[in-house]
Each structure stands twice: as structure tokens, then as C-alpha cells.
Design a protein that fits this description.
Elements: E1 7-14, H1 17-24, E2 33-40, E3 58-66, H2 75-89, E4 98-101, E5 105-108, E6 111-120, E7 128-136, H3 152-156, H4 162-180, H5 186-195, E8 203-207, E9 213-221, E10 227-231, E11 234-238, E12 242-244
Parallel strand pairs: 1-2
Antiparallel strand pairs: 2-3, 3-7, 4-5, 5-6, 6-7, 8-9, 8-12, 9-10, 10-11
Helix pairs in contact: 2-4, 2-5
The structure holds biotin.
Amino acid sequence: MNKANIDIIILDEIDSTNNEAQRVLDYKSNFPLWIIADEQTSGRGRKNRYWFSQKGNFMGTFVLEHKIQKQYIPHLSFVVSLALRETIEDFNKDDKEIFLKWPNDIIIKNSKCAGILIESLKSNSDKEYLAIGIGVNLINHPSKSSFKATSLKKEFNTNISRDEFLNKLNKNLLAKINFWKMGENFPKILDDWKRFAYKINENISMLLPTGEKIDGKFSDLNNEGGLILSYNGENRVFYAAEIIEELKLV
Ligand code: BTN
């Protein structure tokens, strides 16, 4: 996937670029491609949360036709978040620390500045497609959110142009997907990811899909990228939970 000239669809306003990704399958045949929106009226985050989508921020979906084995699709959370982190690092003139919050949020000063929503698309053919939705708070961030938010403008004290950001992200994303080699290099991706892991070796609070909250030490990732939490003298591996802010001391 070394295509330099990838189609970019730029829209003034759309419900969600991930929703548009589903619709473009009806009339586009060359992939990958980007769908970028100035504004989203129903921007979605993970767990169907609202995603703050004001003009000036980056809202885009990379639509990928793929032959990735099903069990390797979760690798993309790590591959894409590393590429996104690298892109943000390019604008980091003050050398602030940029962390990766498991599995794929970008954190600066304990606040989230970017998130990723990867969804499988429905296809009428035997081809398979993924929508890799990426939201970055370039200029604005919500004042209320499930995890404290920030923007790159606030952290780096600079206005970043959406199009410049897209150019760099596109390059980094293609390079990282190539490097991953459909799973062959996932151990290297994970090693790299762990260098930036938010709160690794620290006590964290996790929210489980059941709604249960547990506290423990984020001790490592397993070979599939599952989060290993140590608590009550045992290790448990999580694939679908999330790290939340409230930490009761353990
Ligand atoms: C998250 O952190 O919960 C994921 C946020 C993903 C937001 C992006 S913005 C572009 C794309 N379109 C959407 O509706 N969501 C993703």
C-alpha cells in the first residue's frame, strides 16, 4: 500500500465521516481513500459516545479495502494510534510528553486530544472494508467529556492547519500499516506502543463493559495487545474495557 495519491473527499458538513464511509462503497471503487469533514452533526466516539466535531478540528475517515485476518483487526488500534501520535509529535515544539491511552487515545497532560473509531463496513461483494475514523482536537475541545479533554492549540500554543495535518497523517498511517505487515511485525508495534503507554506500571481504574469498575496496576500488554491488570494478587487480561479517570487508592 504505497499509493502516494489517495483520493480525498472533503465535505462541508456530514453526520459522521464513518457513516459516509459506508455510503461511498456504493459509488467508489478505488481504495484506500479519505473522507474529511469541516463539521460533523453526529460525530461518534467509541461506545457510541458523542464526539465534539467543531470546525477547525480534524475529523476524517480512512476507508481501507483489506484482506486482514479477523483476529488481527484489533492490531489496527495500536498501528493507527502510533501513526497518529507520530503526526502529533511533529507539531510538538515544546517537547511535551504525548501518551497513548490503551487502546488508542492520545493524551497530553492527562487530557485527551485525539481518538480513533475503527468500524467494519457492510459490503455487498466479497470484498472487506474498514472505516478508520480519526478525530483530533486541533483548535477546540469540549469543556465536558467522559475523560478530560484538551486541544493541540492549547498544548502547543499554535494553530495547526487541518490540511497540513492530513498530509502528515496520511504519510505516517500508510508507512505504519506497511511496517505492520498484516500482523507479522505486531510484536514490534506493541514494543513501540508500550514506550508511550499512559500509566503503564501505575495504578489505574478500569471501566468494564458490564459497567463494573475495578482498580489495579497496569502491569503490561499481552501478545495480542490485551491490557494486563494486576489486582488482589492475580493478573487479569482485558480486551474491551477502558481506563477511566477516577482512581480510588488501591
Ligand atoms: C473516541 O475516542 O471515542 C473515538 C473518536 C473518533 C472520532 C472520529 S471523528 C471522524 C470519525 N467520524 C466519527 O463520527 N467519529 C470518528
